[in-house]
């Protein structure tokens, strides 16, 4: 186990991570409190359901504690958590099947749409913003249809918003592989009818490929 962390964290976070990697459960509890709100929001993006999102976030933190020795600090700790979150979500979906977006309650749907509306222009009119939220929800459904390795890089790049280097570290592959997977993922998304006209929103963030 290598407790040396190379990510930029505030001192308290870095210290807590080092102590947690040394087996300090109380320190890991402090780490959880720092990230749990952000992690829950990401779980809402994946689940579209508050109860399922809470369970998923909790399962992710439990898995993170069990796997903490494998975290080497080459990516942001939150990116590492998001990679676990996505993997847990996919395993759950495989066992239970996906929850249809139409089955989500209005309140939960609004929260979900708020989380995926990052593609919307801040100056959009209310009707335009609503339409963009609906489109963003459809985009996410399309992403879930991608192969696992393509889902991962798209999610970490455009939702967790990490760098190519951070994604490579979290995925355990090279930056070149991340670029290749993103290229093929976006190509597949462009081929989906519902995605026509939407990939331009991704291309602006993928300009460093």
Biggest sheet architecture: none
Measured distance between first and last alpha carbons: 32 Å
> Compute the gyration radius: what is it?
17 Å
- How helical, in percent, are the residues? 55-70%
Q: Number of DSSP helices?
A: 10
Total strands: 0
Shape: globular
Instruction: Report strand %.
Output: under 5%
Mean pLDDT: 75
Backbone structural class? mainly alpha
Order of helices and strands: HHHHHHHHHH
| Low-confidence runs of at least 5 consecutive residues | 1-11, 98-105, 115-126
Descriptive overview:
The chain is an all-alpha fold and 209 residues long. Helix content is 67%, strand content 0%. Helix 1 (11-21) packs across helix 2, helix 2 packs antiparallel against helix 3 (50-67) and helix 4 (77-96) packs across helix 7.
How would you sum up this structure in a few lines?
The protein has 209 residues and is mostly helical. Helix content is 67%, strand content 0%.
Topology:
Blueprint lengths: L10 H11 L3 H23 L2 H18 L9 H20 L9 H11 L9 H18 L4 H11 L5 H8 L3 H16 L8 H5 L6
Q: Which keywords apply here?
A:
disordered N terminus; 10 helices; mainly alpha; 209 residues
